[in-house]
Amino acid sequence: xxxxxxxxxxxxxxxxxxxxxxxxxxxxxxxxxxxxxxxxxxxxxxxxxxxxxxxxxxxxxxxxxxxxxxxxxxxxxxxxxxxxxxxxxxxxxxxxxxxxxxxxxxxxxxxxxxxxxxxxxxx
Length: 123
Hints:
mainly beta; 8% helix
């Protein structure tokens, strides 16, 4: 289970980030998780603070994800204490979380539906 464990709000996107941790016992696919501010939920607008993870990364148990607001390329790196951290970026030129003092929620895919090819249905 991935949880939000920290947030650094700033008016500079290069200094703003959210830290997540896989607190479960299994690897978890990051792709499809969504961070959304309470303001975005209330207004129904993603522009009010939301991000969908598109990185196809498996996060091992106990490992961290650092989502930076600024620009960069997704990558695994070691922190100062030597633990692995997956760095990913929103690639925004303006701060996002600084304007949202309300809670930030982490959501996951609940269900996916895919059409089956016709050949499989006829067998």
